[in-house]
Amino acid sequence: MQIIYSPAHRRHAVATEFDGVKLIPAYEVPERAEAVLQALSDRRLGAIRSPEPFGLGPVARVHDQALIRFLETAFAKFVKKHGADVREAYPSSWPARRLRQVPGEDIDGVMGYFCFDTATPLLDGTWTAAREAVDCALTAAQLVDQGAAHAFALCRPPGHHAASDLYGGYCFFNNAAIAAQWLRDRGRRVAILDVDYHHGNGTQEIFYQRADVLSVSIHADPNWAFPHFLGFADERGEGAGEGFNLNVPLPYGTGWDSYAQALDTALAKVAAFGPEVLVLALGLDTFGHDPISKFRLQTEDYLRMGETIGKLGLPMVVTMEGGYALGQLGEITANALEGLLTP
What we know:
about 35% helix, alpha/beta, 10 strands, Arginase, Chain A, two-stranded antiparallel ribbon, 8-stranded parallel β-sheet
């Protein structure tokens, strides 16, 4: 397995996030990627390489130009308004129900138009880090398209919450969706399986009206978990995409036995679709000791998870998503990838 990593992720070094009550130390920090990289190196799971540059063309196949332009320029505009000592730019107002859905000219309003939460600040280096994360995913897709059985994109920031015209949930560009679209543009039949604790709302939105990409997500029930407003079992796709979206929401306290049953359901859907390539959005925040998880998966369960998914026998592009238990994140990521590689 080739591992694609860029140190540019360190430029998105968030210090704080708003948890609904107060500012707290951020969970989505550079140490996440470094812990995973060290564990994969120690386990000798594959060669580590830098991403190739792909430019903005593949990004624009998934995301609106308005969002792309905003992310490139927003931090500078925020600093111009609020002062040079600003380190992290947060939205403060949103176009809620019965308000006009137009961004206006003021940066505070524009930020709220494009961002859907308070946990995803923009920094001076966010644009560079997000672009490099996309290039990691696209390099992995290119390797698989050229014949590799597996490639792991150590993406940071993650991506699966980013929709076509929205960012949030620590995500700016949807790395997995961009990789899937790039493969579709090369004639590949593609399915996406998202195993993050949180529903991949961005991925669902991007492909919801399409029949050419299957989107499957196993996640915490949005009745009580972020992103709250998408991820329910009755969301099956729309129009041409009806039947090509599967959500498997799970309750508080889910352990391996229940999770394994959900995984079997998800994999049966993937197998029935008959993809040539699987894009696996690998979130590790289902871990029982993750600070923002209410599931109870244990270290050894990720080896089982990888082995179960690996039995599909499909070429796989794996993108790093969530996972915030810094002490164990490297180990459980390595376990999942080792499981995928098990014959």
